[in-house]
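Structure (tokenized):
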């Protein structure tokens, strides 16, 4: 499998020191830690984890927690959460550690679950019918469980590697892909993925990744830890330059004849009025025409790459801002009436229409497309947004619900790229890992014109004309 994605900017977060020590007796807490470490079947591992966890707790008691201990504690916590969920499901914890274990759900068949059984852990039909290891049953995300079980059964993913990423104790405190559990082990809202986990999860499917960026050196630095492999390549791309788009495609085609997934992600937002290197209005030229040309030049490769199990896919990043306006065919440059958000809304509607027309033209040939709203994410995309507007957003309680961290923002894109549930069901606008539903509600929903009957085909013809492809 081959995948091409436009790279995005990344941001870091800092952790503040603890300001007050816990009230429980240290002796009591050390005993709790000792009992907790019993989830590890090996006495050697249990003792080693106990020693390190006790040291971390001792530093915490002294109001001197060490940030360097966090990666270790995260992996201890995920093991505890997995063991707790196994116990809740009635599994013997030791079966999680045996290489040849088979999930009890595979041989127990349909059964009446106790009323106290968490809904998030209830077995799906796939868990009951596809042979798999029981460690894949412990995650409180039914779709995640199904997707991984499918991928492992089809030899698209090695669950041993995934298990090592998630549960191998991080004694070295090195940064690596991980899952983080903040709350109850059975509660999906208490789990979070690290920045590296989702791209690594796609990498674990065996895909070869081609990542594009205007500055390849910066992109490699941002994705350090994922790039030390022959299956991750970088391509230079500036979507505001048609020459750069063509050079990028030529570079890709010189390296590969296969492309299964194209994720069109990069862009600009609400910038001052301007023109691209080829004379197009900046936002329409970058966010739509650049992506359109990239797809068009890769179209034949995508059409030649489907398999019976997995058709080719295009994921186009749109936005809830498409609600700011439709495409102005009579004045695409908005000359004399330019307004940053009006222009951005036009380009995001164009993204939806492009995905819909790809589906209409090529869906029956095994090439499908989706438009995706990732959510509001604090990245460099917002560099042109005035400070006062950002402050207003921060105080808006309703709008605040739309904000996502980068892991959450990637979820809908990853769903569109690889989910078996969407196989053959393109031409849709997705948000919050599901199909968006009307009406338009500002931060959620979909505008009426997004599903206009004539807009997609009309935009397609106009794009071919502007790019001299007709």
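Design, position by position:
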């Amino acid at each position: 499998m081959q995948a091409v994605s436009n790279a995005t900017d990344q941001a870091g977060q800092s952790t503040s020191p603890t300001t007050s020590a816990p009230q429980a007796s240290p002796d009591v807490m050390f005993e709790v830690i000792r009992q907790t470490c019993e989830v590890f079947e090996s006495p050697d591992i249990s003792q080693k984890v106990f020693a390190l966890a006790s040291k971390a707790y001792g530093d915490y008691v002294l109001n001197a927690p060490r940030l360097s201990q966090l990666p270790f504690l995260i992996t201890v916590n995920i093991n505890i959460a997995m063991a707790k969920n196994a116990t809740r499901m009635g599994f013997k914890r030791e079966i999680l550690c045996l290489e040849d274990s088979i999930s009890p759900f595979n041989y127990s068949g349909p059964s009446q679950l106790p009323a106290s059984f968490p809904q998030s852990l209830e077995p799906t039909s796939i868990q009951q019918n596809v042979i798999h290891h029981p460690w894949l049953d412990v995650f409180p995300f039914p779709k995640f469980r199904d997707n991984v079980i499918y991928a492992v059964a089809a030899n698209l993913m090695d669950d041993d590697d995934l298990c090592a990423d998630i549960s191998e104790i991080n004694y070295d405190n090195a940064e690596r892909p991980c899952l983080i559990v903040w709350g109850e082990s059975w509660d999906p809202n208490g789990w979070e993925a690290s920045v590296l986990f989702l791209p690594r999860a796609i990498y674990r499917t065996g895909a070869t990744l081609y990542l594009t960026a205007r500055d390849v050196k910066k992109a490699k630095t941002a994705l350090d830890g994922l790039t030390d492999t022959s299956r991750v390549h970088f391509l230079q791309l500036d979507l505001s330059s048609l020459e750069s788009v063509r050079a990028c495609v030529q570079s890709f085609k010189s390296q590969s004849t296969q492309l299964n997934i194209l994720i069109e992600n990069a862009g600009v937002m609400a910038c001052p009025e301007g023109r691209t290197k080829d004379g197009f209005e900046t936002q329409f030229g970058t966010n739509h025409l650049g992506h359109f040309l990239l797809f068009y030049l890769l179209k034949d490769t995508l059409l030649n790459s489907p398999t019976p199990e997995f058709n080719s896919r295009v994921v186009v990043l749109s936005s809830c801002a498409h609600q700011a306006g439709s495409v102005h065919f009579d004045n695409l440059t908005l000359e004399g009436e330019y307004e940053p958000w009006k222009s951005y809304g036009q380009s995001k509607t164009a993204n939806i229409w492009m995905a819909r027309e790809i589906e209409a033209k090529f869906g029956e040939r095994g090439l499908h497309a989706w438009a995706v709203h990732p959510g509001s994410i604090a990245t460099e995309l917002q560099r042109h947004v005035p400070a006062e507007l950002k402050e207003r957003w921060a105080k808006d309680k309703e709008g605040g619900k739309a904000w996502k961290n980068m892991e959450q923002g990637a979820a809908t894109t990853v769903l569109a790229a690889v989910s078996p549930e969407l196989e053959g069901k393109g031409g849709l606008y997705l948000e919050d890992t599901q199909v968006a539903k009307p009406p338009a509600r500002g931060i959620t929903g979909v505008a009426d014109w997004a599903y206009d009957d004539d807009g997609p085909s009309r935009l397609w013809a106009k794009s071919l004309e502007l790019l001299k492809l007709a």
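Reviewer-requested clarification: The beta strands are 2-6, 179-181, 191-193, 208-213, 232-236, 261-264, 312-317, 367-373, 428-431, 434-435. Residues 7-23 have pLDDT under 50 and may be disordered.
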